[in-house]
Task: structure prediction
Amino acid sequence: MSKVSFLDKLLDGVDVEWKALGEICVVFTGGEAPKNSIKGSIPTNDYKYPIYGNGSEIYGYTDTYRIDKDAVTISSIGANTGFIYYREAFFTPIIRLKVLMPKYEWLLSKYIFHYLSSQTIYSKKSSVPNMNAADVKKLQIPIPCPENPEKSLEIQAEIVRILDAFTALTAELTAELSMRKKQYNYYRDQLLSFEEGDVEWKTLGDIGEVRMCKRILKNQTSETGDIPFYKIGTFGKEPNAYISQAIFNEYKAKYSYPKSGEVLISASGTIGRAVIFDGQDAYFQDSNIVWIENNESQILNKYLFYFYKIANWNIAEGGTIQRLYNDNLRKMKIPIPSLAEQARIVAILDKFDALTNSITEGLPREIALRQQQYEYYRDLLLSFPKAVAETPLESVEKQNG
Result:
């Protein structure tokens, strides 16, 4: 069904009027956290009302509340400025969080939430991003059938019903993913936990040498080139530096270079983050990205990879920067069951890993598809004809430059 026919059928010929949020909503600004409150994500009998700040997470809980209705919140300071959330009744906003509460019974908070979620409501560039109450009050939204409150409410409710069905499915899948991750972590920890005497324990230094690539100087890199050069900040992500094919060929031939399947480890930044080398031509920052030159007749690389995820690294302080020195790595003890048992453990964990973490299969892909589906229908349902004058966000965008 086309966009026009879908909207025409929903609106059934009724008018749409754009109204500023300040006309139809009470705009409330959060303040300091209540004195009688606790931080964290777990309520108690005494402190059961959530406290929301500018992020997506619950700040804490208190023994009372400031907002007694379902409402929409807009993060209005810091990196999250412009983020939209729907909050159920009985909560307290803090840290300049903006709260929108409809003034009229014919206006649904969920309708406001879905519409604002389809918009980019903040575009100002500054060292400390922020939105004040005046900015929020100028934002405009389309109100279907404004002359007939009952009909307007009916149309809003139908839009909300359709979009909530998509968000409910996404929420179910997200909860399922969270449960699967907990299940994965539990089985991983169980499978890799051995008592002294159950299996042989060796240090990583016993099973292989710590290796790293030859140092690459800054003047040997460029923003574009032949061979990706991964620094600690881009390790496991997209590269932002390259080296020439000539340097790569020379250094790969003369110095240490990982074999396909060996496990690269971050020795600074996020200590112990592990990436399995896929064998594609690439080069890695010396001392910050290292690996054990492993003999798989003793221990499988994939088994090492999973062990690294639960390893308790003895982190050394190098000035103000924490890092994993080669000596710490060599002394790390690891349980080594038989190769057959290692293979069994790897096979089980691979299945969990594919389900929880794969981009192309499993729940993350399904969640991404459902989110795309929600956004498609949200934009379809909320693409109301705009007024000739400044509408939705034009006035705020002009003010913010």
